[in-house]
Each structure stands twice: as C-alpha cells, then as structure tokens.
Amino acid sequence: MSLLDLITGSAGNQVAEQAENKFGISKNQIIALLVVAAPLVISYLKKKSENAEEADKLNAALDRDHDGSILNNPSQALDREQEGDSILSHIFGGEKANVENQLAQNTGISMDKIGPVLATLAPVIMGYIGQQKQASNVTSGGGLGDLLGGILGSSSQQAQASNDPLSNILGSVLGGASQSSGGGLGDILGSVLGGGNQQQSQQGGLGGLLGSIFGK
Description:
It is a single chain. The protein is mostly helical. It has one domain. α3 packs parallel to α9 and α8 crosses α9.
C-alpha cells in the first residue's frame, strides 16, 4: 500500500467519514488534511530517526502499538484521539501549535477542531508506517530512516505519475518536504506550506492549491 493508497483508499475514506460525523467537518477537508499531515509526520520522523536513540524508540513504539491493524478497522481512530495527541506532541514537540495553526490556515479547518482531527488521524498514519515496517521486514531502528525515505520517494513518484487533484496536493507536499535542507520542522513546514517551489508559489502556496480544489 502506497501513501496515496492510504489516503484515497478504504482506510482514509472510512476515518474521514467517521471524523466528519464526530467533528462536523466535511470529509473532503479531512482527506485534504490527511494528504498534508501524513507526509509531514513521516518527514519529521525521518529526521528524528537520524538519531540512533530516537530511531530505537520509534521502532519500539511501532512494534508495541502500531502493527497496522487499525487500517482494517479505521473507526478505532476515534477512540484513540488522546493517544494521537500524545503522538503528535512527541513528534512535533514545541512546534505542535505552529503545525496546527499552519494546517488550519491551509485546510480551512477551525483552530478549535484542527488539533482533535489531527490527533484522530495520527494513529492511522502510525499504523500505516507500522504496516510498511512489517512488509519491508525492518526489525531495528537502524533501518527506519531508509524505510521512511522510501515511502516518501515512492509516493512522490506515484503522485507525479497521476494527475488527479489529491495527487497534485501530495506531490506539492512531498516536493516541499524534499526541499527542506535545515532538518528542522520549521524548515519542512516552510517548504511545504509556504510555497517552497515554483508550482506552489504560482498557486499561492499549498493553501491556494487546496482552495482551488475544495473551494476554500
């Protein structure tokens, strides 16, 4: 399963429908958030996994809590919101509020709902990473950086080969993330959400791309 398959397939649609009912936000906006949030989470975990201790912690967390079974029953995500919030706090640290603010601006989801919706999506994203870890037979933290980089690379190629709106968004996000050179979340956010390449700049950044599709 590719990242695009996660977003556009059964798991992404089911969790979006469940979250739509719970939070009163359109399914399209939630899928748009997942398109942006999944590569951001994976990009930042890839940066963190460059530290051997962080990589080992991530490997243990994936083995313990994220075996991919949530993808077969995405409705679990609604009951794991508190866990998802803890996941995001660990991944983004002191940048978490900035991430939520940027994502709220670019998806049109209000600030009071962006955090809970993002926390609902986090266990699904982690479950996807755990599934890919098992499929690739990665058994230690040392292989996680290559695994995460491979997910981003193959997803970028798939997005470029397709011409549907969600692929265009994913391609813009992955293109921005790959341009991040400083290694920090601020750099990733700036590249992804701030018009990090020519295509984004022409369309007013990711917000312009999302707006053109979902009528923000």
